[in-house]
User: Fold these one by one.
Assistant:
Number 1:
Amino acid sequence: MKKIIAIVISTLLLPAIVSAQDDNVILRAMKDELVRSTNELKYENHDKPFYISYTIDDASIFSVYSSLGGLFGSRDLKTRDKNVRILVGDYEFNDESLDNNTFSDPSALDIEMPLEDDYYGIRRALWTSTDNVYKGAAQKFKKHQATLKEKNKPLAELPHRTFAKIPPHQTHLPIPQYNIDRKKWEDYCKELSSYFKEIEALEASSVFVTFTRTVRYFVNTEGTTAIIPETLAAFHCNAQVKGSDGSAINAQATRYARTLDELPSFPELQKEVRDIVNKLKNSTQTKPLEDEYTGPVLFIGEPVVNVFASTVFSLNASNALQGQDSYSSEGGLGAENKVGKSYVDASITVKATPGLKTFQGKPVIGNIVMDAEGVKPPEEVILIEKGILKTLMNDRSLLKGDQVANGFNDGPGVVQIGIDNGIPVAELKEKLIATAKAEGLDYALIVRGKASPMGQTEIYKVDVATGNEEQLSPARLKQIQPKDLRRLTATATQALQYLPLSRNNIVSAIVPEAVLIEEAEVAPFKNSFQKDDIEYVTSPLKGSSK
Amino acid sequence: MAREMEQLKKAPVPSYYIDYHVDDIQFANLTASFGSIIEQNQDRSRILSLRVKVGDYAFDDSHPVAQRSMGYRGGGAGQAILPVDNDATAIAFQIWKTAENKYEDALERYKAVKNISERESKPAVAVNDFSTEPVETYIEPPLKNLQEDFDTAVWKKKVKKYSAIFLRDKNIMQGIVNIRATYERKYFISSEGTVIVQNVPAIYMSVNGSIRADDGDIIPLSKSYYATRPQDLPGDDVVVADVAKLVDRLGKLRTAPLAEPYSGPAILMAETSGVFFHEIFGHRIEGHRLKNEYDGQTFKSRINQTVLPKTLNVIFDPTLSTYKNFRLNGRYAYDDEGVKARRVAIVEKGVLKTFLMSRSPLENISNSNGHGRASVGAEPVSRQSNLIVETSKPVKFQDLRKQLIKECQKQGKEYGYLFKEVVGGFTTTDRYNPNAFNIFPTEVYRVYVNGKPDELVRGVDLIGTPLAMFAEITAAGDDAGVFIGFCGAESGNVPVSAVAPSLFVRRIETQKKPKQHEEATLLSRPAPTEQ
């Protein structure tokens, strides 16, 4: 099909201006529109809303991207996103009670949120969403009422979600202002990325720095108002080389901090990148893991966080109604039925401590003051105690009577995993070898260093006879399940690691420095897109190695 | 390129041609809705697209074959982002990786088409796959920095002011003004020795409004402006008046009756007839498509035959930046294959003379005529540029109306249609679907034979099949109108203009537009008056 159109509007490229904000304008517009909506919304033959909340996320995202000394991107993007939630019915039975899909269909008449503090513009953007979300909720509630009537059962006998009542609060935190030295970060990224010119077998490389400043504005009809600023700075470095067998070998480093100034110093970043460069130079000669491996695996350093990534960090209650499509993770669904039961090794205790600000004198990022539903989480929630699952992280939609909204709509924020009877790393290695021997294996595996993209992991082969280690080409670790954590030994000492749940949602994980899983599966890494290992034209980096 | 070419010539299946195309784009974008800025971007990027050809000019990896059983899973791989600063190593590395991927892609395709062509029957006339063209050198002076011309603060005020005019009507649901400024410097080099560096500055401003009718239908209207520098766009007085008119027209459309399907006489006013020609004619004379056995190939064997009324000439001229005081956006000095742009008379006195050609030859046309075009990152094919329709027998607009009314009477129609403005359209040219077109008018009137005033209607799409429609063009006006837009096809969106006179067509067909059912908002829009 060929077509002609008047003007194609492109959103191809990104902006660079942060204007001074008058926060009161945003909050005042939100409050005023909330009052109007509460008092005046009337939809013929439908119930009025009993709950309305407005959220505006005012974000500025600074990013610099460089490769091989060239500047590929440098921008400061400003966005404002809105979220409108409206419930019709009451806390016990409402439009979200019988349906897993709680999202509203988009409206063609939507008006976007202004980027400036424009009182009427903000109200107009909220107005169109309110109209759309309320109509959808009111219609759905009417449908739910008909379903309840059709079932001809008391509500208590019908599986349904309730909406938790939460005490209102006013949390208005000061909004810090940041001056970004763009030129400095551009120069840093260019220089750091230029180190990869030394790798003749380089296939790709990049260095990114990002700094996201978000201010969340929240109001609801229960009386909660909030202004919560959050920041996250990140340094990412990725590179890929072609191994001797033609396979792709990746390496990466990521550092998080609350601000750009709190990122590692430039000399530290230089060392970090130099280490990757050296590692990749040597890795082209490493041997691959020959066969799939099942047996004891010792995790040391950063990879420890991945041991728990898909298990104890995602102990969220899905609260999905059975028999309907659910987007929740298997971990969450599975965990709901295991509260009060043995879940992992009895030596493990897991606590969510979303308010923790420092660990061993270092700042902890990912703290949660308030979740996306306006709920303030407690200082500490014990999720697993000596292996027994005690509770799950909940939002305000509850499926069971014993659940409480504990402020974890956005995840745990900060998680601490403690181990009873911990032993030092050296003893863990001895235990690794002993376990492998007992299972009749010739070698065991150690995972250390940094986790890489594409699920690749830095693997070391340990000869059970000599204890000598040999680095292998990256391999793929099968995702650890809760059952894999039933036979586990770890260090008593802990380290702070970070796990990104999404671009701006980081979990700070205080985990053992090393963990021995007695049975894990590791497979050779296969790149399904790998082409024949023919280089028709030599890399321009050939001969550039120092 | 010299290094790539030297080494690829030694490959088991050598490459015979490489070109690199880099678009260095300075970009600014502002959008306001009802007086509020909702989008603001400003950036710079460089995008590389390249071609590596395997085989030779007579038979290469682009050789047209039936797609079935090619056993080839290729595509793309010829684009990359380049750094915005001039780091030679970073640029060379990106080019090397991209060229390597593209060569592998071309090699796979070459092996596949070679295999198939040996099984297929040979065509009666051998046609080269890639034409030989003169080596060119053309370098324009460096382009100014966009920020020197585009004052963000000034334009923010303007788009806010323009879009705030939509607040005058409480029933208007969308009131958006967007300005998009791109200063693009295009670099092209080929292994044949061609070097082209040319500038493409373009400023587009669009005004888009929509209103909800009482029956829930959403009616859109738009207005667009084009210039090569921000200061050349119309002044505030013109734009404010235009937006006010658009608001007024939206108000009238809200209560306008819905039109029923119709077949009968109509006038396509100048801007509409430009789009009409672009769709029904222009897409059927793009040369590369005539090599594709899936295409309808409407005009493939019609060279030197009469295809339009003898009073009409159709020209494509990418060398023009203006025509009759209209600014044209389909202008370029060299096309995206490094071939010099030139005026091409496609139809003279109704007779088809040639096709729009890229470097993909046809049986009787062995060379490009400078119409190989592509959007950023895409591979060029033959595309339209500035379409100009001229008539040797212009008729005054009032006479066109008289002809319309007379023809309506002859056909026993109570009214004919007058299509005044249009937002775009599309057509299908393949042979597996009906060869049809659909044009999206935004301002349509019924012209009554009994002298009743013209009546604005809504919900009309202009449809038809091309060959039938050509035969119905009866007269052309002494006026001219221009449509400035972007044409989307195989090689992406490229800027195009269409200039044409108003047309009287003996018989057109309309169908109902898809209708929406949007409920009225429960509360009124905040800020009830213009700010």
Note: Chain B has two domains: 1-255, 262-512.
Number 2:
Amino acid sequence: MLQAIERQRYFIDYSLSSLARRRGKNLGLLTVYSLIVFLLASVMLFTQSLRQEAAAILKEAPEILVQRIAAGRQDLIPAAYLERMGSLRGVSEKRGRLWGYHFDPAIKANYTLMTADQHQLPPDGILIGAGIARARGLGAGDFLSLRGNDGKPAAFRVEGILPAETELISSDLILMAEPSLRAFFGIPDGLYTDLILKVSNPREVRKVAEKLTLLLPDTRPILREEILRTYDAIFNWREGVVFVLLMGALLAFVIFAWDKASGLSAEERQEIGILKAIGWETGDVIRMKFWEGGLISLSAFLLGYLLAYLHVFFADGFLFEPVLKGWATLYPAFRPRPVVDGLQLATLFFFSVFPYTLATLVPVWRAAITDPDSVMR
Amino acid sequence: MIRLEQISKVFNQGRPNEFRAIHGLSLGIAADRVTLFTGPSGSGKTTLLSLVGCLARPTSGRIYLKGRMISALPERFLTDIRRSTFGFVFQRFNLIKGLSLIENVMLPAYPLGLPFPELRERAAGLLHGLGLGSKLENRVEWLSGGEAQRAAICRALINDPAILIADEPTANLDSALTREFLAIVEGLRGQGKGVIITSHDPLIAESAVMEAVIRMRDGRRVERMAMED
């Protein structure tokens, strides 16, 4: 056992010295290899983090959202619909929501205005998202003037800024009291933007939605799982776009690595001949070269992944941010939470370390099975 | 004793460039003597040496080492015999550039997995014995021709083989270094080791150290002359 370990140590030692002897070639390879792993891992980590973030945010969202449809478009929904749907089995809570969009020509951005259900605000008081605060240079106590639906400006006093942790969804958000919002948008009492339903048992969600379509035929129920699926599809699509963009680089690397790995130089071929002639078995030579390829690919994988981790979670993934996150005037300051998905890590490891290591072994095996007397000739 | 029976070696068999290097050769070599294979270039002496040293297999015929047929053994067993029985000194020495002198010497023993201090001590002892003790950590490309040859001999001896095999060992050396080499061979003979050399250097062929000479031409043995019995 100890002898076997000692043997492997000798092979690793020799592999390291062999790598050091071809320093230029191997450093070049390691750099390009790490860069490719870095790019792929960055995209994977960033997208995964966005998916997780979206899932975490939507976890608190209601299971069913009901919108009224008039002529194929969303319309305000009467509060009476809450009574019309009656008591549905499995629905633990139902209420109307009031919200809307407002375009601010001053910064050419859209705000989302909502009623502050969990905050007591004075009629002219608002809470604003951090994105708006940054864009308009506002702080608590400042006033924000917006043009209402009647064309007259309405001034609101900023009571506070929404917490930074929720910035991904609250960056463009303005919360105000319900009467103020109705007055600002001109929405009469008894009408809501949409209705929300909370369903405790996930198995009952679809059944409740089916009943709703029968009870309220002019409405459209939207399930939370559908929203999640849409987010997933968007992030998958964006990830795919980046991968396609990276395909050229990936292909160049594959050609480069294949050339480096599968072609043995005359010097390497002779070295294998010498090793065999002085008493190394074919298996010993392959083991040594396996360590050599493994050390390169493993180092590149670890280095690339570490850089990607730092890039995504400490530098906010600045290279891919615009593509993966989408664009907005009120960009949320999104700090991805460090998440490493085991399966994703294993997939990347498998597709980056194994092909290279195997590619190095084929020519070595071919060289190593030839008679060692080639060094004599 | 190494015994060869009706050995033939054909390169590129079945191709237009087929070449028969050895033709039905039979001979015996005393494993504890100094034997010289001599002959002009292309006579087949290096091929014969590689067959004897288990570096290649014959196309036909049998090779026996101490009565055991080795010519049909699988590569793994052949490597084992090569490692434990033979030490090789190549014409261009074939030291691995970029490695230190002592690393080169230790290299044949790596697959054995000996404890590192023991192996290093053994390698250093051999290098000290051949006057290279002060250059253990020097890279081999800095060595002179004579030093490189002595390094190659040390490497050949690291696994304590019974027979040293040297292919044209003095082809790149001057007369003084050739005599130095012969002195080393004599020393090895004194330690009870056998040496098999290929050479067409007259200094080697005429040396009293040679105990048996096998003359080759066109892949056939011309004569065998016992120098000492």
Note: The interface with chain B takes residues 2-7, 9-11, 14, 17, 20-21, 270-271, 274-284, 369, 371-373, 375-377 of chain A (CB under 8 Å).
Number 3:
Amino acid sequence: MPAAIGQELVALLPRLRRFALVLCRSPSLADDLVQGACERALANADTWEPGTRFDAWVFRILRNHWIDQLRRSKAEGMTEDVTEQKQIIGDSGEGPVLSRLLLAEVQRAIDAMPQEQREVLVLVCVEELAYREAAEVLGVPIGTVMSRLARARKRLVEMTEAA
Amino acid sequence: MSQLHLSDEILMAFADGELDAPMAAAVEQAMLTDPTVTKRVADFLRSRSLTRSALLREEALEVPAELQAAVEARIKEYETREAGPGALETSKGASAAPARRWRLGGLALAAGLAALAVAGAGYLAGRQDTPPPAGGLMAQLESPSVRDALSRTPSGQEAEVAAGRVRIISTYRLADGSVCREFRLHSTLGTADALACRGAGWTVNFALASPGTDSGYQPSGATDLIDAHLQNLGAGEPLLDSAEVQALEGAPRPPASP
């Protein structure tokens, strides 16, 4: 009696894609990532324990799939380390920040963070996972989740305050 | 002044509603007496709502029709299989039917899988349009220094070995409990993607060679095959961080007899 996860998976697609976008910052990569993660989820449906959070389970699959891809692309000799990629925070050049520009600023600040900060930020602040749940998705201790999250959020505040 | 050391983590947990009642009460007390504490908590509330607004307003939530259709098609395939107990479907305990799970690059890969199943351990395939690589590369894959690297090197890192350079890609635990690692060897004889599993020692049970590092190497074919092979072996998700360390530290176990 394999768990029928199809409907839940479809319902989760928008959030999976958002998480994928935060991880890889490229729409086309994100779509591949979501598709690959769905395949893995379907193939491993029997390892999901009913009663636990389905979203967190698929987030973990998606993230592991991404890390796998990263390692492979490194092995293939790509020198650019996507996880370490730093984007230059452009000065918007618009003079004083209009409030509608603030969110774009936030988006840029998030894009410029290392992956370990971006992923925890989206899981807790957007997906509203508890620290413990995020720790399970990421496979790290809860203290690590908290320190990464606090660092990311302080940075966000500093960057947007300066504007 | 509060005597309590209120770290960023504590104030953030307070803002996120993750503190237990006594700690939360202590933070509230501190906020009454120390405006800087209040400011720090407010900043954490602000960063949360900023993040939320920035990411939620994105068009990210619009799933492209193609993606949606692709996933729905896969789901349908799975559900059809599960609904109809076809003649080919064996009992649940049996390992999954090969190739049914993965949309591989087409028939060529399916054929590759069939060859794999027949050849079993020690399969070393050359790319179709190149002569099979010398046995030397296969021997290098199982050399002592490569085995040593397999036992010590975390995924994502490289190690120098006698024959050249090894990059460990990922680590898996199979359904039978054994630990396998996907890796790539670059040597003077060429490049090989391989999967080694640990029994009494490391044994390469799948490898795909490409003749030279500078030839028209197409990595996706090799990794798709290894992916499919791993699925057939019942590998779950790759082990990360502490789970990987634990798996590598675990005593080598003899190959399980199913």
Note: Chain B has two domains: 1-88, 101-249.
Number 4:
Amino acid sequence: MAVTELRRQPSLLRAAFERFIQVLLVFAAAISILTTAGIVFSLVFETIAFFSEVSIVEFLTETEWTPLFSIKKYGIWPLVTATVLTSAIAMMVAVPLGLIAAIFLSEFASDNIRRTVKPLLEILAGIPTVVYGYFALTTITPFLKNFIPTLSIFNSLSAGLVMGVMLIPFVASLSEDALSAVPNSLREAAYGLGSTRFEVAVRVITPAAISGIVASIVLAFSRAIGETMIVAIAAGQNPRLTFDPTVPVMTMTSYIVQVSLGDTPYGSLSYYTLYAVGFTLFIFTFILNIFSYWMVRKFREVYD
Amino acid sequence: MTTHDLEYDNPNAIEAHNMSVYYGSFRAVKDVSLAIEKNRITALIGPSGCGKSTVLRSFNRMNDLVPSARVEGQVLFHGENIYAPGVDPVNVRRRIGMVFQKPNPFPKSIYENVIYGPRINGWKLSRREMDELVERSLRGAALWDEVKDKLNQNGLSLSGGQQQRLCIARALAVEPEVILMDEPCSALDPISTLKIEELMFELRQHYTIIIVTHNMQQASRASDYTAFFLMDSDRTGQLVEYGSTSQIFQNPKDERTEQYISGQFG
């Protein structure tokens, strides 16, 4: 009797419902994958169209970027250096401050402080970047001008600094997660050997959480590279090959904004530059993501 | 003349006088008075929740890491109360080492695990002296022969029993006087357990060992003295009986001790 109960077929309705749910889930998963694939494909095809008119050698060796001028030159480097420069300045701010904040929150702060400060940090991460951009342009740049009189109104220094501030909560929050995930038994072991709090934090817990910390830094770096509004507003629109942080520059993202907003005719060469630059940007973040994936796998310690 | 010289004749490594431990308002352990003899193995036994681990952790101020914990009474080490104002728990822990229930090597190489303590203690050692210290500590923990060819491998790559002996080697490297062991074999298989017990007998020549154990066979075969703890109706742990291991196991004075060691509860 019991056996026949177990073998009874489910009702048709239930089977249909199960099937429906399954299809729905696959559909939802497929959307995101197909969208990503679609973006990559359109990037690749339009980029190929661009390179059928501009040689890849010129793209990589020319030192000027003037696709919208009458004398057109297509050297990507001015945009790349500007992106790297603003991102590097941002990381110089975000990494030390974010890490210090994370170590403080995880290893030194009381539960009460942690419970208050962490949500505050995450609110900081929710400020729209356009606000940061105008903050850089209207507050930080005039302030810095007191110390650096030659500073241009648009410059990568204040854009980078403010971008760094924007990324602090990013680094702090993710690194704090990594530090807190280190098992308490390691803290006890270190204390048991006569470590001070500082030694426990710096010599045991931070190294043990290094994969998560590096991942947070790489993630922040790829956000800095892709960040658009702050640099478009505060760093300028002048593509030039320089590592001078006081002069206006143009990042890859700023260029994309400029072209997207302007009246660039569809199908023109200047239209295709958009994709070439976008594809370069994509390669940058893609390499960073692969790097962070590799780092996490290589250095992750498995605790049970 | 240092305190150490004054205490030269003191046969006890650690003495607890009327020690009580609180977690917040909860009194976890009440009025424990206990003298731990030097160069002996003292086992703390009792059912779960009887406060034996709490007592052990009070001996090197590990309870300080629990924000709500508070200790009353005295714990004397070389005649000095380790809970006196001005005593730095970091210094206490450098002389009273600890081995934990679950092996917890650092995610560093075997070599770095052992040399960690001397490094943070600021010992100025040449490369050769460090190598010797690592070898001596690993030999002391009966692990040297198994790992001498792979000192640069991660400590976590070892088996559970090896990891625990690595933790013992790590504790030995700072040359403590007392080693506290909190159920060091509970996560290990019987063969690894036996190795650790043999090791404890070796270590006894140079160190005082206090071990918390759930395992009464272990207490009876691997210790010189045994302290039996039990919690009262308020769930507060108390020391019921303390004596030589043979006396506790063969001729217990307290009825509750007899019931516990004969397996009637716990």
Note: DSSP finds eleven helices and ten strands in chain B.
